[in-house]
Design brief:
- With about 240 residues, the protein is an alpha/beta fold.
- Helix content is about 45%, strand content about 20%.
- The protein contains ten helices and ten strands.
- The chain is elongated, with a radius of gyration of 22 Å.
- The two termini are about 15 Å apart.
Amino acid sequence: MKVLIVDDDRDHAESIADVLDARGNEVEVAGSGEEAVARAGAADFDVVLMDVKLPGISGVDAFFEIKKRRPGARVMLMTGYSLEQVVAQAVENGALGVLHKPFAIGDLLEALQRTKPRSLVLIADDDADFVTSIAAVVASGGYEVRIASNGAEAIEKILAEGADCLILDLRLPVMSGAEVHARLVEQGRSVPTIIVTGADPGEDKDAVARVEAQTQGLLRKPFDPKALLSAIGAAVSG
């Protein structure tokens, strides 16, 4: 994760930064609300850890300013003071929560894990029963799930929302899976794709050959749900 720590207590900020950096996160530190607004406006952070009491504008005011510039910004407040009303107002307007100082490193790591953005998986398949069962499996892996029942809808959703992984059935109505893949490549919007098919190995051979080399794997129905989660994990992390 890319994390911005905002705290005028430099020692506290750097101790948190050291812990997060050691766990593979990319960390930056700001010492004031104004600096936080400038940095968060110039770069996209996965989460901002914002102290409430800061020199200049307060952490809560900085939070509101950041949200104006980046509505999707994810901010976790930190405070060692009793400011329930002010903090509650920030939480009501989208702050992720509050860490009360002094907090244990374990509490910090747990809070960050809860705020970690979930990868979005789009399932493009017209078999409603299959989609219902697979969507539950994918969600159990901690992924956010979207569903498309035909090829045109799959393209529309990827263009509108994007996706971190596409589970793509070859035999889709309106537009085949192979056509969906080709169209996304043409438009520069291709995403890591796992092909699924219920056809016999001899069927759809040409379509499979055209797209399999450009995707993250092929699963033939019925398949082990663990194999699907493993393929999604490889696709998202790759």
